[in-house]
Design goal:
The complex is a heterodimer of chains A (419) and B (156). With 419 residues, chain A is mainly alpha-helical. Chain A has one domain. Chain A contains 21 helices and no strands. In chain A, helix 4 packs antiparallel against helix 9, helix 12 packs antiparallel against helix 13 and helix 15 packs parallel to helix 18. The longest helix of chain A is centred in the middle third of the chain and has 27 residues. Chain A is globular. Chain A starts with a helix and ends with a helix. With 156 residues, chain B is of the alpha+beta class. Chain B has one domain: CBS-domain (Roll). Chain B has 7 helices and 6 strands; from the N terminus they run βαββααααβαββα. Chain B has a 4-stranded mixed beta sheet with strand order 1-2-3-4. Chain B has a two-stranded antiparallel sheet with strand order 5-6. Chain B is globular, with a radius of gyration of 18 Å. The chains are: A mainly alpha (419), B alpha+beta (156).
């Protein structure tokens, strides 16, 4: 049984990394094989699915899908360009910071899908290359995503498994996320300042934009903002009232569906079911190798490697997660690491710091390469279709440098705060 | 009422290996909005119309954020079209997925296929699968008018 489970898991992992077959199809086949080949009972497999993660993802997707229709996010981005007076360097700064803020509240892919189109329009008007903006936005979306429980799927997974609240994430991760955002914006301003040259006349084009015209539906906008406010308030207090984040998100989603009177069929068909089913497959796959004792074995190896020292374990997880997440999808990586950290906890180690190290490493590692995070690939795809090239090599140099700068600062932060 | 009663026999085809530019040229020169796309054996595989060309020319980042297009400066549309100039017809055509009819099929089959698959043109083929004509939505509309006894004043 041990080897059957390991083989299924490793083959699935290899296929996900190779990207030759869709990751969701592979994960589901692997999950079903765990049951068919007798590694897990079906009942056990189903109970391994973390419905708190699924519910939180689903709820947030619905809220964002409806809010997106109002044009709110385009409005904010256009407004930012106007506040920057059309000055490309200032626009780089404001759009990057807005990307970080959005991605703390929305998932990174959605953020990129909202910000990148506005960026193209602005760059077209200023007649400058949008690629520097895009790279800065990708990097800041991964940094911003680290700030909250809902900012990046690894955080959702970790929060649910470790029982950490939205407020816990905000207190522990938002400060470092803000520090990194400021540092990286200064970094990008410094390396790109010569590439961002335009004329006063072109800058005036930006000033002529009427940001309000992007708002498509004012009544819906008011309802969306109301529900967003209620949901964020709910997240802030969920730990005190004993509710899981999934309940809060699904409350917000159902409330918005009711008061917006939007046909749920229209919204639900846009929900990323492929992502949700990918998570379901992963939960079962990880339960499979956990069942046969592989995770326990790995946890013991980590204990041996770090000689049981919490400091060494924190550093290994922080940097190991970053390097791993730069090359493989950080979602399956974190899903595998969670039971491992829990196993370390069971052995008597205090693992609270390890959760933060895992989240920070996995989120920031996404900046290392173009394939490190889905948001990076989505941005590159949009660029290609718009006639610009953001290839693996172009991104690699700046991505790696960004990853190392942010990881070094994060290491210092982790040392000061937790060790 | 059969397909042959409303078939359009004068049709213009284009090879699936042709380009955006060639498709556009043929449409302009022949004052038509739709071309049937044929494979190397001259059998119908799809169709291309002005909608296909419009869709191909708009970059992905504007499709989901249509309101942003109002801010685009002059020259962006030209650049977008120049970018797709050499794209292949087979990559932008509406794939028929094997949908085709014969002259002796009932016209309701054409109507049903058009409604189910949202197709603008249904190719009519002979027993060997070669194109002999097409039935468009407009042809189905004429058939409906005929059945309800609505006269075409312009023709009378």
């Amino acid at each position: 049984m041990f080897y059957i489970a390991i083989v299924i898991f490793l083959v699935v992992y290899a296929l996900i990394v190779s990207e030759r077959v869709h990751r969701t199809s592979v994960a589901l086949v692997g999950a079903v094989l765990m049951v068919i080949l007798g590694v897990l009972h079906q009942e056990h497999a189903f109970s391994a699915i973390d419905f708190n993660t699924i519910g939180l993802l689903l709820g947030m997707m619905i809220i964002v899908l409806i809010t997106k229709q109002t044009g709110l996010f385009e409005y904010v981005a256009i407004k930012a360009a106007k506040v920057s007076k059309g000055d490309p360097v200032k626009i780089l700064i404001t759009l990057s910071l807005i990307t970080a803020l959005f991605s703390a509240l929305l998932d990174n892919v959605t953020t990129v899908l909202l910000i990148v189109p506005v960026t193209f329009v602005i760059a077209n008007n200023l007649k400058i290359n949008p690629i520097p903006f895009l790279i800065a936005e990708i990097v800041l979306s991964n940094i911003g995503g680290a700030a909250t429980l809902i900012g990046d799927p690894p955080n959702i997974l970790i929060g649910s498994a470790a029982g950490l609240t939205f407020l816990d994430f905000l207190i522990n991760l938002a400060p470092i996320s803000m520090i990194l955002s400021v540092v990286m914006v200064i970094f990008f301003r410094f390396i790109y300042r010569h590439k961002l040259k335009t004329t006063k006349k072109l800058q005036e084009n930006i000033m002529k934009f009427d940001a309000r015209s992007t708002i498509k539906d004012v009544p819906l906008l008011k309802k969306s903002l109301f529900v967003l406010g209620v949901t964020i308030f709910g997240f802030l207090i969920h730990g005190f009232v004993g509710l899981e984040p999934a309940t809060i998100a699904l409350f917000g989603a159902s409330l918005l569906l009711i008061i917006s009177k939007i046909n749920p069929e229209k919204i639900l068909e846009q929900v990323e079911w492929t992502t949700i089913l990918f998570f379901i497959g992963l939960f079962i796959l990880v339960a499979g190798i956990e069942e046969v004792g592989a995770i326990e074995y790995l946890a013991n190896s980590v204990l041996d490697l770090t000689a049981g020292s919490p400091v060494a374990a924190t550093l290994v997880i922080l940097w190991g997660s970053a390097i791993f997440s730069a090359v493989v999808d950080n979602i399956p990586f974190v899903a595998t690491m969670i039971p491992l950290v829990q196993e370390l906890g069971a052995s008597g180690m205090d693992v609270t710091n390890l959760w933060w190290a895992l989240a920070l490493g996995a989120d920031l590692g996404g900046n290392g390469t173009l394939v490190g995070a889905s948001a990076n690939l989505v941005a590159a795809g949009l660029a290609e279709k718009a006639g610009y090239k953001l290839g693996f090599k172009e991104f690699l140099k700046i991505g790696m440098v960004s990853m190392f700068i942010t990881m070094l600062i994060t290491t210092v932060y982790v040392f000061i705060r937790y060790i | 009422m059969l397909v042959q009663d409303h078939i359009r026999r004068h049709i213009i085809t284009i090879s699936q290996n042709a380009t955006f530019r060639e498709a556009l040229t043929i449409m302009i020169n022949n004052k038509t909005n739709g071309l049937i796309v044929v494979d190397n054996k001259n059998k119908p595989v799809g169709y291309i119309d002005s909608f296909s060309l419009v869709q191909e020319s708009i970059p992905a980042y504007l499709k989901d954020n249509v309101t942003l297009a109002q801010f685009e400066p002059a020259g962006v549309f030209k650049k977008a079209i120049e970018k797709v100039d050499h794209h292949k017809v087979r990559d932008m055509m509406e794939d028929l997925h094997g949908v085709q009819i014969k002259e002796d099929d009932p016209i309701i089959l054409a109507a049903a296929l058009a409604s189910k698959n949202n197709l603008r043109y249904i190719p009519v083929v002979d027993d060997d699968g070669y194109l002999v004509g097409l039935v468009s939505r407009t042809d189905v509309k004429r058939a409906m008018a005929e059945l309800l006894g609505i006269k075409d004043d312009a023709q009378a």
